[in-house]
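ATP phosphoribosyltransferase
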Amino acid sequence: GNGARDRLRIAIQKSGRLAEPARALLTACGLSWRESRDRLFCYGESLPVDLLLVRDDDIPGLIRDGVCDLGVVGRNVLLEQDIALKAGGGSEAFREWRPLGFGGCRLAIAVPETWAWQSQAQLAGTRLATSYPAILRQWLDGQGIAAEVVELSGSVEIAPRLGQADAICDLVSSGATLAANQLKPVMTLLESEAVLAGPSSATSGASGLDQATPRQPAFDGIWDDA
Ligand code: PRP
Ligand code: ZN
Ligand code: MG
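Structure:
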């Protein structure tokens, strides 16, 4: 929770695909901010709501630590860190309050275009490069597929050409990055978009959102893309 603070803090992405739409959404809600020199902390002028401009990957941790009350972040980032925390023995730390209708993409497994794709059983024994090792590992385990997960923080799509992996699991939006790397999507693990996120504890935060029905992220949207 935010303890002694009497102002709400919302974290959004500083730069990247969600940055402008997140700001536009909050502006449309009637919020405005005093311009700060470093542009990392924006003091709310119209309402007691301050903005933190950060890396998207940092947003779940800021929520967990109570540094901010709410965040606008991709479901993919939130779920990855939630699964990783629980795998490490932690309890649920985040909650997806609602999808926001922008930043749509999917987390997909993609294989070289030359592969004749039949089923996910073909992934057994392969090396899969990803920036989402927790989501991928949970999915592989659920499917009973023994594959090696190679964690990369970026440029995942080039890993097969570099010989670091056989296939990948990464975000797909337009599909242009996959096509440029001669890869094709074959399985969707998660449909993602920007979401409003907060702490999971019903008593924490000053958000007043406790009555809302949280959406439970789950692997219920899996299908075969091929
Ligand atoms: C994302 C993602 C893919 C790409 C997919 O990367 O990691 O690489 O976009 O988009 P497309 O299907 O429209 O080509 P992004 O460039 O946002 O940056 P990041 O990987 O550094 O986070
Ligand atoms: Zn990022
Ligand atoms: Mg990328």
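Helices lie at 19-28, 59-64, 75-87, 133-143, 159-162, 176-180.
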